[in-house]
Amino acid sequence: MSQKLHNLLTTALVLSEQFQTTLDTTPPTQNNTTAADGVQTADPLIILSNSAKSLRAQVTKLSLLAITAPFTPSAISTCLASVNDSVMPSMVTAALLLTPGEYTKAFSTEARILVKTGLKEFAILVQEITNTAEKLDPSFPSKSGESSKDAENKKKELSKQEKDVITSQTGRVWDVCDTITTLVSQGVVGHVAKRVQQWHDLVKDAISELEEWDPEDEDDGGFEELMGSDDDDDESNTENEDDDDDEKDVEALQTQKKSLLRALKPIAQIYPAIVTNRVKKGGLTANNPQQIAKLESLTANLQSIPDHVDEAAGSLYEHNLDDCVKYLKLAKTTAEKTIDLVVFPLGEQQQEDKFTVWSRTWRKVMGDVISDVQK
Questions:
Q1: Residue 28's Cα: distance from chain center in Å?
Q2: In contact, 259 and 373? CB cutoff 8 Å
Q3: Which of 297, 44, 13 is nearest to 129 (CA)?
Q4: Please, are residues 95 and 111 in contact by the beta-carbon 8 Å criterion?
Q5: What's the gap between Cα 169 and its chain centre?
Q6: pLDDT one digit per residue (tens) for the chain, 375 residues
Q7: Residues 6+ away with beta carbon under 8 Å from 124
Q8: Quick one: which of 58, 44, 49 has its CA closest to 12?
Q9: Where are the stretches annotated Disordered (predicted)?
Q10: What is the pTM of this model?
Q11: Phi, psi for 34 (deg, rounded to 5)
């Protein structure tokens, strides 16, 4: 029986490595070709969720069996056989079936990364169980150089520290399995909504930082003032002129700041509006290639807006008003393109709804506030 356990442990490590390589080297296809050929296939999301739950259950049993005396190779072998024969192949298959064309590139990539991480963490646990078998099972194949007397004197039970290593690693596998289950429960819609909220937070953070910034707090002439000058009388008039110029600069920056904030706030408003009216309630259907393609464009635009906003604010901090206006216009243009993509619901019927009406109001407001920005 110990030889069987040894073989199963070795197989688990080999399979984990091979499956990780498969996930790394198999390029994602745009669509599920099997389904496209008319063959009914199981939902890969269900397969992924079920296999993650099964892995979690099996590693729980494995860890308990490994740390509880007496050490029982037969029970551990049963759990390992299930993972090797069913759980790992199912997880990898499900990850490969979650194609970008049907589930978005981000969702597909996330699933692959999580499955690969789960395989890595499971392999580490398997190695710890292998170490445990070598310590506790007298009939387990000995390491090179170990005498029969050493085998007879093997421990009867693991120390607390050794048990903690196994339980800690089991917890890491649990975390990955739970994350996979959460990803599946969110689905494409929930995953997209979560990412959009993250980008919205970035825009809000930039706005908050801009609101707290005060151009009058900046002092570019501190070094000269500290050093003093021997020609104070001769330069007094020049300094007065410089002070006047500084006041004008500060006034210009304050005006630009107010105009920029007025323009950025409606840009930030498109995020919750799109999530509520289009991502969650806009007729979005998973496995619909046309809708997924539009969703890819939508998320690409929403992801790029925070970069433009940061550049606009950063240019203002550097007193570069021209670049500030340039990046603000980029943010505005990208926001308008985003609105255009989802001006109607994502379903088949192109009918106006409250979001369509809201988008017209938004455009008018955006046009008014952008004209206030200094050119």
A1: 18
A2: yes
A3: 13
A4: yes
A5: 23
A6: 578 999 999 999 999 999 999 999 998 876 665 444 445 567 999 999 999 999 999 999 999 999 998 889 999 999 999 999 999 999 999 999 999 999 999 999 999 999 999 999 999 999 999 999 888 876 666 655 554 445 455 567 788 999 999 999 999 999 999 999 999 999 999 999 999 999 999 999 999 999 999 988 765 544 444 455 555 555 555 555 555 567 888 888 999 999 999 999 999 999 999 999 998 886 676 678 888 888 999 999 999 999 999 999 999 999 999 999 999 999 999 999 999 999 988 776 678 899 999 999 999 999 988 877 755
A7: 169, 172
A8: 58
A9: 135-163, 211-250
A10: 0.82
A11: -65, -45
CATH number of 2-187: 1.20.1420.10
* Euclidean distance between CA atoms 139 and 125, whole angstroms: 21
Do the Cβ atoms of 255 and 325 come closer than 8 Å?
no
- Write down the number of H helices and E strands in the chain: 14, 0
Token look-up 């003093």 returns: 228
Cα separation, 77 vs 62, whole angstroms: 9
Closest by alpha carbon to 318, among 213, 212, 240?
Answer: 213
> Alpha carbon of 364 to those of 258, 271, 342, 360: distances in Å?
19, 18, 17, 6
Q: Round to whole Å and give the CA distance between 293 and 100.
A: 9
**Is the peptide bond prior to 70 cis by the omega test (within 30 degrees of 0)?**
yes
Q: Which two tokens stand for residue 174?
A: 């649990």
Token couple for 314? 């950063």
Alpha helices in 213-353 (DSSP H): 222-227, 232-274, 289-317, 321-341
22: tokens are 């498969």
Domain boundaries defined on the chain: 2-187, 213-371
Give the three-state DSSP class for 206. helix
- What residue has token string 């619901």? 345
